[in-house]
Design a protein that fits this description.
heterodimer; A: 442 residues; alpha/beta; 6-stranded mixed β-sheet; 16 strands; 41% helix; elongated; B: 413 residues; mainly alpha; globular
Chain lengths: 442, 413
């Protein structure tokens, strides 16, 4: 069961909302219904948020994202459609039931913190529990725990005015955490902070999320923030959903020009990870093979390098063509002295973090999983191609595709040699480990 | 020759007579209600003004008891304190109703009380005083047994001691009550507003006493305090409602304008019709004249509270009254206090007009001055009003500093 579900949700401000909903449901754009003297803030929005997920709603100002988040906890009444929290349709709840639901299931973090200036940090953090009627001693213990979680122990007795912006928002976060609700709504929670602190807060939120596993609906206008935090992202435009998907899907496969325009300025190197840009791990050779076989494999694949992997695909290292050719000339029988160490990255490493390693090594980067098995390789050219936006990169993309095709042609040959050498590559399709790889090549 | 007249006949609308008819009707049908209101207000004003002019030993004792009880409540010893006060109240009512305590006292041996009665110069044992002393003793006992806090022990010693000093000063040494009350008010000024205001009030009150206006000043003060209390009690809820509801706000606004602009003398007319000559019409007229800023500033203060804070309360599921009490009112308190301050200032300006309808006090002095061309009397009355005004203004202004919002602001500055 999804933690939050919105179905065909509409919010129309004005006197004749139902008529406007009918027109909008027919697909009329928002501008055409201005004659009705209504403002359509949210139009036909449907999505599901799974428990433990960070769901980011992203849009420019006026896209209806703040209205949307306020409908998820009933602060704003809906015009039509349904909102379900844990399977309960909140649009049908009465006032007091709605209050109960808010205090027990959904807490909120605000853009401008919304801390009560006349209460101490501790009392602020304990507010959610105070509303729920938890006795003082108990709620203060929980509030202290929440404050410690966000790194504010020792500040309990200050008032919010004595804290910096970042610290104030930590109190706001602690208030939501102390309320101990499954769902946290965050309305542009970090937008009022300066960039460095914003980044710290994002990191802290991700760390907390890793241990707490809350369901978070996060509103932002900052695409980089959305890409960084969101397990999935919903792009809103003029009140309608433009696209919902994972960060990489949106980046590599924008649903329309609007989204494409939007993502132009995104720092792609921070969003794309090794797994989304890596290529098939070819060529590889077995440590048992001699330099002569290794040289043939490299020539067949037209590369100057080959990775050395064991039968269980664990990476041993990398060999270069020149060294191998020399060894063949000197009639060396064993590879062992020739294997150099490869620069390794994990599938989750951001592209931005790979440049230094790529510069230090003359070979491609090896992408290895937790068990040190080789799952992909990233040549420098691929790394650079990943920086190009899908539109701008048409030409290079075509080249890349051609390359891939030729590589695939040869892979059949390679597969033969692999089966000859006894290595089992049946599970080595990069698609298994990196579902987005195909998208990145498009 | 005949001239054609272009005069358009405008019918006479009987506004005045209708008003009179309405008043008559109200007086007949709601007579009991007005009598009740009159009784309450009258009682309050008389009690307060006797307290300010000729406070009895009982009142001093109760004052000391109130301070000790306040300390106990501040340290969260609610239950024993409330029990003691409730027992006292029960006995007090029983005494008033049936003379129960007097009956008990007369059965007790006289030497038990004689020393105290001699001290206070009383010819007989005055039961309420005995009750008040017992209450004070009980509260002091509670302070030393139940309360562990040192400050409370100090409180429990200091106030009975002050009481003793005051009683000795008056009943044994023979210092006038006016000086003692002036000193107490000055101490209050020091506690709330600091040295400057304290010194001003000492000098000001001495001037009033020397002008022989003390009793009038105190009866005016009592009238103002009662009028302020009534105005605050009425205007706060209206202001809160107006802040919450746009329709109430639009409905209330013209009424407030009307109340403020209608010449004060005009609503003395119905006030006299309902309550006849005396203090009560003065209080009622004052309340009506002074109320509008209370309503307006309460509404403004609550509307000024950051919307996001109210939304935060709602987002955590707080009911409306809780948002009002814990978020809106504390944050609006400074503005609301400014409204109360305005109420007090406007009440003061009504003192003279209230004097005209026989409310007594300083207004009477001024009115006499005008009516008889007696410049000294009128001027002295006026000066006394100004001193009272400054005293009350500084006091209420200083109270704002104790609001939680102001305290937080100071802490963060």
């Amino acid at each position: 069961m999804p933690a939050v579900r919105a179905d065909k949700l509409y919010k129309i401000f004005g006197r004749r909302p139902t008529k406007a909903v009918e027109l909008l449901a027919d697909g009329r754009p928002r501008d055409e219904i201005t004659s009705l003297n209504v403002t359509a803030a949210v139009i036909d929005v449907s999505f599901e948020v799974q428990p433990g997920e960070i769901f980011v709603v992203m849009g420019l100002s006026g896209s209806g994202k703040s209205t949307l988040i306020r409908m998820l906890n009933g602060l704003l009444p809906h015009t039509s459609g349904t909102v379900e929290i844990d399977g309960t349709d909140i649009t049908k709840l009465g006032k007091s039931e709605l209050r109960k639901l808010r205090s027990e299931k959904v807490s909120m973090v605000f853009q401008h913190f919304a801390l009560f200036p006349h209460r101490s940090v501790l009392e602020n953090a304990a507010y959610g529990l105070e509303v729920r009627g938890v006795p003082r001693a108990e709620r203060e213990t929980k509030a202290r725990e929440a404050l410690a979680m966000v790194g504010l122990d020792g500040w309990e007795l200050k008032v919010p005015g004595q804290l910096s912006g970042g610290m104030q928002q930590r109190v706001g976060l602690a208030r939501a955490l102390a309320a101990d609700t499954e769902i946290i709504l965050m309305d542009e929670a970090f937008s009022a902070l300066d960039p460095l602190i914003r980044r710290d807060m994002q990191t802290q939120l991700l760390e907390l999320q890793a241990s707490l596993g809350k369901t978070i609906v996060f509103i932002t206008h900052d695409l980089n923030e959305a890409m960084r935090l969101g397990d999935r992202i919903c792009v809103l435009r003029d009140g309608r959903v433009a696209q919902i998907g994972k960060a990489e899907e949106i980046l590599n496969d924008p649903a329309n020009d609007y989204v494409a325009n939007f993502i132009e300025d995104v720092d792609r190197t921070r969003v794309l990870t090794a797994s989304s840009v890596m290529e098939k791990p070819i060529p590889v050779i077995d440590p048992g093979q001699g330099p002569r076989t290794a040289l043939r494999t490299m020539r067949d694949n037209q590369t100057q390098w080959a990775f050395v992997v064991q039968r269980d695909r664990r990476l041993m290292g990398v060999v270069g063509e020149s060294a191998i050719a020399e060894a063949v000339r000197d009639n060396v029988k064993d590879l062992s002295g020739l294997v150099g160490s490869a620069e390794r990255v994990s599938p989750d490493t951001a592209v931005a973090d790979m440049f230094v390693q790529a510069a230090e090594s003359s070979y491609p980067l090896a992408v290895i999983d937790d068990d040190e098995r080789l799952v992909g390789v990233i040549p420098r050219g691929t790394l650079l191609a990943a920086l190009a936006t899908p539109d701008a990169g048409d030409e290079s993309g075509a080249d890349e595709a051609a390359e891939t095709a030729s590589a695939e042609d040869e892979s059949s040959h390679f597969a033969e040699s692999a089966s000859e050498s006894g290595a089992d590559y049946s599970g080595a399709e990069p698609g298994d480990d990196a579902p987005a790889t195909e998208g990145s090549r498009r | 020759m005949s001239l054609i007249s272009y005069a358009v006949p405008v019918p006479r609308v009987p506004v005045g007579t209708t008003f009179e008819a309405v008043i008559d009707w109200l007086r007949v049908s709601l007579g009991a209600f007005f009598e009740f209101v009159e009784m309450i207000i009258e009682a309050c004003v008389t009690t307060l003004s006797t307290m300010f002019t000729i406070p009895s030993a009982t009142q001093f004792t109760l004052l000391a008891a109130a301070f000790v009880a306040g300390g106990l409540l501040a340290h969260k010893h609610r239950r024993p304190t409330l029990i003691a006060v409730a027992v006292w109240a029960g006995f007090y009512v029983a005494e008033l109703a049936a003379g129960l305590v007097s009956a008990v006292i007369t059965t007790l041996p006289a030497p038990l009380f004689l020393w105290a009665m001699n001290l206070f110069g009383a010819e007989y044992v005055y039961p309420p005083l005995v009750l008040a002393l017992l209450l004070l003793a009980a509260l002091v006992a509670i302070s030393f047994t139940a309360a562990k806090e040192r400050p409370q022990h100090v409180t429990a010693v200091v106030w009975p001691f002050c009481l003793l000093v005051i009683l000795l000063l008056h009943f044994v040494v023979g210092v006038q009550l006016s000086l003692i009350v002036a000193a107490l008010l000055s101490v209050l000024a020091y506690a709330v507003a600091g040295w400057g205001v304290c010194i001003f009030s000492i000098l000001g009150f001495l001037l009033i006493i020397s002008m022989d206006s003390w009793e009038n000043a105190m009866s005016s003060l009592a009238l103002i305090l009662v009028a302020t209390l009534v105005a605050v009690v009425v205007s706060l809820p209206i202001g809160v409602l107006a802040a919450q509801n746009r329709h109430v706000s639009t409905a209330v606004k013209p009424v407030l304008d009307f109340m403020q602009t209608l010449p004060a003398f005009v609503y003395l007319l119905p006030a006299i019709a309902f309550f006849s000559i005396g203090t009560v019409p003065g209080v009622i007229a004052t309340v009506i004249f002074a109320m509008p800023p209370g309503v307006r500033l309460t509404e403004l203060g609550i509307r000024q509270v950051d919307k996001e804070l109210v939304e935060a309360g709602e987002a955590f599921g707080a009911p409306d009254w809780q948002i009002l009490r814990r978020i809106q009112l504390p944050l609006a308190l400074a503005t609301i206090m400014a409204g109360i301050n305005q109420i007090i200032m406007l009440s003061l300006s009504m003192v003279v007009i209230a004097g005209m309808v026989g409310a007594g006090g300083l207004g009477n002095d001024v009115y006499t001055g005008i009516a008889q061309g007696d410049i000294p009397v009128g001027f002295e009355g006026g000066i006394a009003v100004v001193i009272l005004a400054i005293f009350l203004d500084r006091l209420t202004g200083a109270v704002t500093r104790y609001s939680p919002a102001a305290r937080a602001q100071r802490a963060s500055a």
